[in-house]
């Protein structure tokens, strides 16, 4: 165990007292259903609580049980997730539900080894589910907890370089028989008091025990890792119309970024290439068709976790060829009204909004379509 600079019991008692009076009232805390808690834990990965709450409530209305989620197809699942981002979480949740249905009779397992073996569940998520649903004594170490412990211990290096040490502390701090409340309290402390910027030390139950506060280092800790500049990609995107006034969309391969979502076709603009040339090339490579590139629709800036993109979107007219899923999973001609039936990435939602605000004349003869 790590060196213990102060008694553990006062820390435990102070945090649990604070949580009893100051803990957040969150919908999943009213449940002991492991499935509902599992859904909340997955949604809360890399997403703020207030964003998650309406998605969580709609999700459970649509998929109230593991069995109902397992029976759904991927398009239904991604449509319910649309807007939350990090779509691998939804695909893993769906895949894991099917495993639980097949291997555990639709009942969420209670053994740590079985839980952590499910897709999309790591050590922190497994500990969070098992402690919240069953009060099992498993520690957690999400971003909030790392920050709290780094300040408590005045950690002299980035938390990523001391994870084994922080896991030891998270485990040692767990009070016997109170893992459920203690883990929730730790997360609340990081989310509402020990915040990344301007921590509210005056209202923190651990102020008297916090080494970073005592050493006046609470604004410098946690120490940040050095990061490389974020790359910026420029993407040519085609809104392709056919003679019937329909739009062509394709579905991204299941593996990888935004897997399983529908989008307007396009790709990265190569050095020395115009956006129009990029669109013609990408549409040929991905779909095996020829298009005429017409007028500009919209430019969209969007940031992902490790890079930024600018989408340069143009109207196009389908000229020849039958669309084939050469670089994607599926292709489909749809009307503007039918787009709501499909799950799109956030940036593509802005394209759809632009199309609708433009009141594009899709019901006119092809000669009146943009060319």
UniProtKB/TrEMBL annotation:
<dbReference type="InterPro" id="IPR000086">
    <property type="entry name" value="NUDIX_hydrolase_dom"/>
</dbReference>
<feature type="domain" description="Nudix hydrolase">
    <location>
        <begin position="230"/>
        <end position="355"/>
    </location>
</feature>
<keyword id="KW-0326">Glycosidase</keyword>
<dbReference type="InterPro" id="IPR015797">
    <property type="entry name" value="NUDIX_hydrolase-like_dom_sf"/>
</dbReference>
<keyword id="KW-0378">Hydrolase</keyword>
<dbReference type="InterPro" id="IPR003561">
    <property type="entry name" value="Mutator_MutT"/>
</dbReference>
<dbReference type="InterPro" id="IPR020476">
    <property type="entry name" value="Nudix_hydrolase"/>
</dbReference>
<keyword id="KW-0234">DNA repair</keyword>
<keyword id="KW-0411">Iron-sulfur</keyword>
<dbReference type="InterPro" id="IPR020084">
    <property type="entry name" value="NUDIX_hydrolase_CS"/>
</dbReference>
<dbReference type="InterPro" id="IPR029119">
    <property type="entry name" value="MutY_C"/>
</dbReference>
<comment type="similarity">
    <text>Belongs to the Nth/MutY family.</text>
</comment>
<protein>
    <recommendedName>
        <fullName>Adenine DNA glycosylase</fullName>
        <ecNumber>3.2.2.31</ecNumber>
    </recommendedName>
</protein>
<dbReference type="InterPro" id="IPR003265">
    <property type="entry name" value="HhH-GPD_domain"/>
</dbReference>
<dbReference type="Pfam" id="PF14815">
    <property type="entry name" value="NUDIX_4"/>
</dbReference>
<dbReference type="InterPro" id="IPR011257">
    <property type="entry name" value="DNA_glycosylase"/>
</dbReference>
<dbReference type="InterPro" id="IPR044298">
    <property type="entry name" value="MIG/MutY"/>
</dbReference>
<keyword id="KW-0227">DNA damage</keyword>
<dbReference type="InterPro" id="IPR023170">
    <property type="entry name" value="HhH_base_excis_C"/>
</dbReference>
<dbReference type="Pfam" id="PF00730">
    <property type="entry name" value="HhH-GPD"/>
</dbReference>
<dbReference type="InterPro" id="IPR003651">
    <property type="entry name" value="Endonuclease3_FeS-loop_motif"/>
</dbReference>
<keyword id="KW-0004">4Fe-4S</keyword>
<dbReference type="InterPro" id="IPR004036">
    <property type="entry name" value="Endonuclease-III-like_CS2"/>
</dbReference>
<dbReference type="InterPro" id="IPR005760">
    <property type="entry name" value="A/G_AdeGlyc_MutY"/>
</dbReference>
<keyword id="KW-0408">Iron</keyword>
<dbReference type="Pfam" id="PF10576">
    <property type="entry name" value="EndIII_4Fe-2S"/>
</dbReference>
<keyword id="KW-0479">Metal-binding</keyword>
């Amino acid at each position: 165990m790590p060196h213990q600079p102060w008694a553990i019991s006062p820390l435990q008692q102070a945090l649990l007292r604070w949580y009893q009076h100051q803990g957040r009232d969150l919908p999943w805390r009213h449940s002991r259903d492991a499935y509902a808690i599992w859904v909340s834990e997955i949604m809360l990965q890399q997403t703020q609580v207030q964003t998650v709450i309406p998605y969580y409530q709609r999700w459970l209305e649509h998929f109230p049980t593991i069995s109902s989620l397992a029976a759904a197809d991927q398009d239904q699942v991604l449509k319910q997730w649309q807007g939350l981002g990090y779509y691998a979480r939804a695909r893993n949740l769906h895949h894991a539900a099917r495993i639980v249905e097949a291997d555990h009779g639709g009942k969420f397992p209670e053994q740590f080894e079985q839980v952590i073996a499910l897709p999309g569940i790591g050590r922190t998520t497994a500990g969070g589910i098992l402690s919240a649903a069953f009060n099992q004594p498993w520690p957690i170490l999400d971003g909030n907890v790392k920050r709290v412990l780094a300040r408590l211990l005045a950690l002299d290096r980035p938390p990523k370089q001391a994870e084994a040490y922080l896991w030891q502390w998270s485990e040692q701090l767990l009070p016997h028989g109170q893992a459920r409340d203690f883990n929730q309290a730790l997360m609340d402390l990081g989310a509402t008091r020990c915040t990344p910027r301007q921590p509210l030390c005056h209202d923190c139950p651990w102020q008297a025990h916090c080494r970073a506060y005592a050493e006046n280092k609470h604004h410098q800790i946690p120490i940040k890792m050095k990061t490389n500049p974020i790359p910026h990609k420029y993407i040519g995107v085609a809104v392709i119309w056919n003679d019937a006034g329909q739009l062509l969309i394709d579905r991204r391969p299941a593996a990888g970024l935004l897997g399983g979502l529908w989008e307007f076709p396009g790709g990265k603009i190569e050095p020395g290439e115009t956006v129009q040339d990029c669109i013609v090339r990408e549409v040929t490579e991905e779909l095996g068709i020829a298009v005429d590139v017409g007028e500009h629709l919209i430019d969209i800036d969007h940031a992902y976790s490790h890079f930024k993109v600018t989408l340069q979107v143009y109207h196009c007219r389908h000229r020849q060829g039958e669309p084939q899923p050469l670089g994607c999973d599926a292709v489909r001609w749809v009307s503007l009204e039918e787009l709501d039936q499909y799950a799109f990435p956030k940036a593509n939602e802005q394209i759809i909004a632009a199309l609708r605000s433009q009141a594009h004349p899709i019901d006119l003869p092809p000669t009146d379509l943009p060319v």
